[in-house]
Amino acid sequence: MAKGKNIVFVHPDLGIGGAERLVVDAAVGLQNLGHHVTIYTSHCDPAHCFDECRDGTLNVVVRGNTIFPPSILGRFSILCAILRQLHLTFSLLLTDTTVTPTIDYFFVDQLSVCIPLLRYFLPDTRILFYCHFPDKLLASRKSIVKSLYRIPFDWVEGFTTGLADGIVVNSKFTAGVFKDAFPRINVVPRVVYPCVDVHENEKSQQKLEGDKYPFLQGSDRKIVLSINRFERKKNVGLAVEAFAQLKEKERKQARLIVAGGYDNRIAENVEYHAELEKLCDSLGLRHATCRNYISSLTIPSDIDVLFLPSVPSTLKRFLLRTAGILAYTPENEHFGIVPLEAMLAGTPVLATNTGGPLETVLDNGVTGWLRPSKPSEWSEILRTALFSLTDAERAALAQRARERVTDNFSKESMAAAIQKEYDTLDGVKRRDVGVLDIMMPTAVGTAVVIGVLVGIGRTDWGVLSGVLGGVVYASFAGLSIAAKKRRK
């Protein structure tokens, strides 16, 4: 693959989660290989994104955020996400007419609904879809109505994903799940591991300023660190319960810091933070939340659990370098980038013996430990990592951890793997995508929604859905004709 290719990324919400970290690293890695990279997204808040998205490292274009909201009264988030991506895609096709003819490859992730549109209007451009995890398996189905509601979206996901020229996943674990979730997709997904910047440690050895994070100053407590988004599926309560099972004298020498992605717009973030605070109360653990410098001035020194929502990158790196152990709590995590960041910093990792960590963390103290989600077993490992390892043992573990990340999960290796995938796509034969491939998801989705609503006795909603579906269908047809003419 020659240098100087024009590669466009299409990503829904460029926040600070693991998927966003992968997208940013992939974009920077390809850019460093000499390619021209642009990220199109429906949302990118300069106050809530990675540094590369706001400091000029990457060209980020925000489109598709003026018509549809992220959710409606806290609901219908998947529907709104799809509509926002369609709006983004048509904005790209209709507005950036000087850009679209020069695009060589697309990198699409999370939402696949734009794929048939891109293939129809840009038939010479190859599309690689990166599946972090099938969305149909992430959605909750707590009621029959919710299960029925998800049917058209699950079908659309499978149909549109199957139209990608190539599909890659983030781990062997996800590859197995993908094949089970989409048995009709003939494309065999290959694994391209996420990465970390292995040079980050060298570039960020700055010392912690004495007046910057006062709650960390003057304390010799050993740190148990948890870094995850404030979501229930991240199972952070496991770390809280394990910490609570340490002996009282051990807890007085340690502190659990729970840091990670937090967005006030997302109800679950707010609710789960409150649930974790209540869990601390029930276990007799003193806790506090630091949201900014001002609130940090009021945090007592004897706090057991400290919550740090949306920590800046410099503080995150400092915590990873100084923590006694990283407690990575999610079960069946698709991959998990934070364990790699911890190992790169030389910090041992404790993770559940499921999902992605099985492919990254070497067990029994080699680079960390893998254990079932039992607080008693986790508490024993915390005790070992904090109080039993000698300085020599810790130094040897840190060396092994850094070497594993550097040898297997560098940004350069991920970018080279993606570039190789594009080389493969150039020789892949594919069928043409027609108008029906574009309109079918809309028609099927609308028909199923109408049937579900009428079936549960909400005929009025069914009629309304039919009208809205017709409007959307007609709008797509009109936009399709306009985009096709514009392209000619």
From TrEMBL:
Where the record annotates domain Glycosyltransferase subfamily 4-like N-terminal, the positions are: 16-198
Give GO cellular component annotations, separated by semicolons: endoplasmic reticulum membrane
Listed A to Z, the keywords are: Endoplasmic reticulum, Glycosyltransferase, Membrane, Transferase, Transmembrane, Transmembrane helix
List residues traversing the bilayer: 438-457, 463-483
Domain named Glycosyl transferase family is located at 219-403
Q: Which Pfam families match?
A: Glyco_transf_4 (PF13439), Glycos_transf_1 (PF00534)
This protein's pathway reads: Protein modification; protein glycosylation
Q: Where in the cell is it found?
A: Endoplasmic reticulum membrane
Q: What is its main location?
A: endoplasmic reticulum
Describe the reaction catalysed, as an equation: an alpha-D-Man-(1->3)-beta-D-Man-(1->4)-beta-D-GlcNAc-(1->4)-alpha-D-GlcNAc-diphospho-di-trans,poly-cis-dolichol + GDP-alpha-D-mannose = an alpha-D-Man-(1->3)-[alpha-D-Man-(1->6)]-beta-D-Man-(1->4)-beta-D-GlcNAc-(1->4)-alpha-D-GlcNAc-diphospho-di-trans,poly-cis-dolichol + GDP + H(+); a beta-D-Man-(1->4)-beta-D-GlcNAc-(1->4)-alpha-D-GlcNAc-diphospho-di-trans,poly-cis-dolichol + GDP-alpha-D-mannose = an alpha-D-Man-(1->3)-beta-D-Man-(1->4)-beta-D-GlcNAc-(1->4)-alpha-D-GlcNAc-diphospho-di-trans,poly-cis-dolichol + GDP + H(+)
Q: Which Enzyme Commission numbers does its entry carry?
A: 2.4.1.132, 2.4.1.257
Q: Which GO terms describe its molecular function?
A: GDP-Man:Man(1)GlcNAc(2)-PP-Dol alpha-1,3-mannosyltransferase activity; GDP-Man:Man(2)GlcNAc(2)-PP-Dol alpha-1,6-mannosyltransferase activity
Presence of keyword Glycoprotein: no
Recorded superkingdom: Eukaryota
What is known about what this protein does?
Answer: Mannosylates Man(2)GlcNAc(2)-dolichol diphosphate and Man(1)GlcNAc(2)-dolichol diphosphate to form Man(3)GlcNAc(2)-dolichol diphosphate.
Protein family (similarity comment)? Belongs to the glycosyltransferase group 1 family.
Protein name listed in UniProt = Alpha-1,3/1,6-mannosyltransferase ALG2
Designated gene of the protein: ALG2
